[in-house]
Write a structure and sequence with these properties.
The chain is of the alpha/beta class. It has helices spanning 19-22, 43-49, 70-84, 101-109, 137-143, 146-149, 162-171, 190-204, 225-239, 259-269, 275-289, and strands spanning 2-8, 54-61, 89-93, 114-118, 152-155, 177-179, 209-213, 244-246. The chain has an 8-stranded parallel sheet. α3 (70-84) links the parallel β2 and β3. Belongs to the metallo-dependent hydrolases superfamily.
Length: 294
């Protein structure tokens, strides 16, 4: 199987500071206990985990590194690329609402392998409640700086904030958005999935929005084909084959399954698609959207 993995993380909490890994008292991950992640995960580890596929490229996504030094993470990634050739490209961290966002974005854009940025906007823990961070004036001012720098935006937010994201997409058609983790379908019941799909459809209406089918394990650390098939197929139905990509979310999703099992699961979900469509989903869309030279 040929693959470009559009979502993984390299990290070293022994040498660098990641609040969610290094600080005591942090809440567990949405999959549950994440203590197994509190160790280095570097290209050699990733090559071991991906040995069963023909890995054509990969995308490192910011790993919630020390927010006081977001550019430091890209220096760390640059050193990994120099030693190992991985990742192919990267997504940096930025806090768009902070006064130093303009300078941070300029510094990130100066790395020739950085394609975009991610910040998890302020969000409510459940549907309802006040508007989230994507409505803040300072955040929108920072977001407007992406297009001149040629950076796209990686969006990770609960599905109930996607209507806010759809308004941002409409107001800034020159900034590509790549939705992370299939729009986070947290409730796999029929009613929950219907609400998730409705919110996601508002994003799919914008042609400059793409989506990564990644990070779709469930609380308790499972990756079930019978639970995920509907998610995978509904995302593709909404966005079309040409705007969907697969990602492992490794090492985080090692809490749920092996890399091979995750990609075998994706392959099983789209077994009925044509060879050309499968090539788009596993390789070609990632090559185009992330500008990866394979």
């Amino acid at each position: 199987m040929s693959v470009i993995d559009t979502h993984h993380h390299f990290l070293d909490p022994e040498a660098h500071y990641y609040p969610w890994l290094n600080d005591a008292g942090q809440p567990p991950h949405r999959y549950g206990d994440h203590s197994a992640l509190k160790r280095p995960y570097l290209p050699a580890d990733y090559r071991r985990d991906t040995a069963g596929v023909d890995l054509l490229g990969s995308v490192h996504v910011e790993a919630e590194w020390d927010p006081r030094d977001p550019v430091g993470e890209m220096r760390f990634i640059a050193s990994q690329r120099e030693r190992s050739g991985l990742p192919s490209v990267a997504i940096g961290q930025v806090w768009l609402h902070q006064p130093d966002a303009a300078r941070t974005l300029e510094q990130l854009a100066a790395f020739d392998f950085v394609r975009g940025v991610r910040q998890k906007p302020r969000a409510n823990p459940a549907p309802g409640g006040p508007p989230g961070g994507m409505t803040d004036a300072a955040w929108l001012e920072g977001y407007a700086r992406l297009e001149p720098l040629g950076l796209h935006y990686e969006l990770q937010t609960p599905w109930w904030h996607l209507p806010e994201a759809a308004r941002v997409a409409g107001d800034f058609p020159g900034v590509r958005i790549v939705i992370n983790h299939a729009g986070m379908p947290s409730d796999r019941g029929d009613e929950g999935l219907r609400a998730w799909r409705t919110a996601l459809a508002a994003m799919a209406a914008h042609p400059h929005v793409a989506i990564k089918i990644s990070g779709i394990g469930e609380p308790g650390g499972t990756w079930r084909l019978d639970a995920n098939r509907r998610v995978v197929l509904e995302v593709i139905d909404l966005f079309g084959v040409e705007r969907c990509m697969f990602g492992s979310n490794y090492p985080v999703d090692s809490l749920c399954a092996s890399f091979q099992d995750i990609f075998d699961g994706f392959a099983a979900c789209v077994a009925g698609f044509s060879a050309e469509e499968r090539a788009q989903l596993f390789v070609e869309n990632a090559r185009r959207i992330y500008r990866i030279d394979v």
